[in-house]
Each structure stands twice: as structure tokens, then as C-alpha cells.
Amino acid sequence: MAILHAVTTSGPVRGVCCQTAPITRFLGIPYAAAPVGDLRWKEPVSPAPWIDERLCDDYGYSCWQRDNTQSPQFLLDCQRNPVKPRPLRMSEDCLSLNIWTPAADTGDRLPVMVWFYGGGLQGGTTDDIVFDGEGLCSHGVLLVTVNYRTGVFGYFAHEALEAEDPHHASGNYGLRDQIFALQWVHDNIAAFGGDAGNVTIFGCSGGGRSVQGVACSPLSRGLVHHAVCHSAGGLNPDYSTDYAELKAQGQALMELCGCRTLDELRQVPADVLQKQYEDFGYWFNITGDGYALPLPMDEMVRQGRQADLDYLLCTMDDEFLLPLRGEVSLANFEDVRKTYRGRTRILGQVIQPTTDAEAVDAVVHAEAYEMKSAQLAWARVQAAQDKKPVRLSTFVHKMPGENGAAGHGDDQYYIFHTLFRIWRPFTAQDEALSQTLMRYWTNFAKTGDPNGEGLAPWTPYTLESPLTLTIDVDHCQMEDRSHPFLTQVSDAYIRG
Length: 496
Fold this sequence. Notes:
The protein contains 16 helices and 14 strands. The protein is an alpha/beta fold. The protein has a single domain (5-321, 365-495), classed as Rossmann fold (3-Layer(aba) Sandwich), CATH 3.40.50.1820. Strand 3 and strand 4 form a beta hairpin. It is globular, with a radius of gyration of 22 Å. 50% of the residues are buried. The model has no long low-confidence stretch (mean pLDDT 95).
């Protein structure tokens, strides 16, 4: 018995059976109207209803973004992956979502997990070989993955947009898409056997930043109950852009496009606009627009105005390893840091090494320290507030094979149980770790507590017990992973 037919607020849909019975999937369900023409840079609205049953057997389009299909990494993955990566199919008509459900009928009321992909808010897609729902759903949850607007289509802000907006705000269209999708989940997920009263949002990198944005937005209240940030989230000024600055960047892009009005800019073809944006030199970002985010995310957390949710804040041990550009020592550290200024502002400005070895470590792991410190700052602030607990984790297992590291986004293969879709020589230990992480994550989705029988205890971060779960193939255990650099940077982030 499985759910293959459902009726949504917009019309009836039909799914298809997955290889793992009784899981079914519904791909490419529109949750909002295509944001094209006059709807470009406006808040999402409901799609036009349909009467005939809609076959949902393929992913919807991805938002316009930089095309990666000719990149060396994509071409290499095509050669060696057992499951080939899919070329992007891009359109402004991109507001769709996908559902995997193991429910036998609509009365099951399964916990719901909603995934926001990464890509620095500049791109990303649900149509990715990593984000398959069969692994997680085999542990008794329902998975939703959401396409949302990114880059110039998702985070462009301008005075003229603000003037026409009923909420007197601009930008954050991607964030509004995510919240609109969560409202769709609230209104429709029971038809797929899900529980609208138990929703967990999770995401990596730009998706993790999105999770924090949703958690800080008053528009999401009552729609979300638990949250997981992978390799993003926390107090870090680089995770958002000042609203006035973002609007000034919007004006500069309009001038670059040779347009004087919004009407003219809305008539620029999407592919042309994307190319102009790629040549622009700035990346549009989430912002404190006064509506979707009344204040910048950092300040929302400092003031305790984020949603009172259970949080998992997770980083990788290596994240992005920065290549050394010549010799690095304490003596030349001040000069070295200038060459990395475009990558990370903390290097040399906040981190203060005391030995040559620390200087090298500060450069190589600068972005890892930055991400860990941002999450630590959030945990420290929230531990002092009267809110539900934050739990921290660090994934230290190196990916097997050449150039293996505990790198940015690598944990996604374990969380989604899609290890064997890529070329790396994973072992039975990797499979066991994937099963362990799926149990932690789905336990969390069910109750707000990741712990369960046979799992190493994962305790909350507190000021009295500032511990982190270390994740490795041969053990998961709570450890004190404090480090002078983390203290220095998180102190700076807390101060603002």
C-alpha cells in the first residue's frame, strides 16, 4: 500500500513508485506561480489551479544561474561517477518542490523534513544526484526538497521595488519563496501522509544560511518546529548584506544593464540578465529588509528574536581548505593575509597566531574556523537565552580516495545515503556511518532530540558543558573542541 494519488490546493497530482517499496515520489509540483514578467522580483503567489490529474514524474526547472555543465569538475564527474550528474535545465519558471513519502495512507502523519539546497544563494538545484529521499524515508519520515530563486532573481533589491511592494521591502525573494513553500507544506502535506505540526528544515551552505533566515523570519512562525544548519548559519556579518548597500548594488546593476526603470529591467531576457549579473562583480545576498527579516540575521539572534526551535548546527572539519601561496610564517603573516582578503575577512584581522605552525593552520583552515566560529557564537548566545537547546557537531571523517578531506558539503552524501552514486571508494564503514547519521537526523525530525538506542549521546551545548559531537567512521562522541582561534572569532562575532 502506498500513496500514488493526492489532491493539493491547486489540483490533483500523481506520483511514481521508488525502487524502495513502499516509498513513492512526486517530482516538480508547482507551489507558486512562475515569477516571470510583472512577477519578476515580487513575492510568490499561488499557481493557477488545474483540474486534470498532473503526472509528477520529473524535476522542475532550476532557477537561472551560472551554467556548470562545461566546468572541469562537472566533466570529470561525468567520466567517473556511477550515476552521472544531470545538466542544469534553467528557467524563471522554477518554483516547484519534490516529495518522497513512505506513508501507507494519509492518516500516517509522518514527520516532515524540508531541504534547502546550497550554492551560496547564487545557484543550486533539487535536480541533483545527492538529494534523493529513499534513504531518509526508509527511517520513517517524509522528505520535501524545494527549488527557490537565487542570485539576481532571488536577492536583487532596489528603491523602486521597495516603493511598489505592499510591505515596503525588496530583496529576499528566495527567502520568501522558501517560506511560501513551507506554507504550501502546511496546507498540503497531510494529503501525502505528512504531519504539518512536525516540520524540520535543513540545508547546507547557502541552504544552511536559508535555514537561519527562515528561523529568524516572523513570516515562518508556526510553520517550522526543528532546524538543522550544515556548514553555515550563525553570527557572521558575511552571511547577509546591509540593506542600503544591497539597494545601491541593485541600482548599479540596473545601470550596467542600460535600464532606467524596473519595467525595462523586467523586459531583459533571463539569460541575458544572468550573464550581466555574472559580470557584475557583486553577489546579491539575504538582507534585513524590514519585512521578511525585520533586522539582519545576526541581530535577530542577539536579541533572541529567532524562532524557539531545536537546532542542530553542523560543520565539517576542513570545509574549504585554502591553498598556501608561498611560505607562511609568523613573520610574514600580516603580508600573507592580504592575499586572502577576498576569501575571508577573519584571516589576520581577528585570528592572532602565536607560532609559525599556527600561522599556517590559520591560513589553510581559515574558512573552517570562520564557519565553526559563527555557529559557536550562535550557540553561546542562545545558551544564555531562555530557548530550546542548540547541539553542535563536527564531521571529521576524510572522504576516501584521492584528495580526501572532511570538506564542505561532503556530509550530504551520508545524510541522504547517496554515497555510492559517486566515484569515491566508500567502504562498509562509510555505509554504517551513513546509517548512523540518518538515524540521528530522523530521530531529531521526529522529536527534536537526535538521540536513540545504540547511538552515542549527543548532548546540548551549554555554557557549563560546551561540547561538540565529533563524527567519524569508528566513533561518534562528545568532545571539548575549543580552540583559541574559535574563541577569538566567536567573541568578535558576538560583539558584532
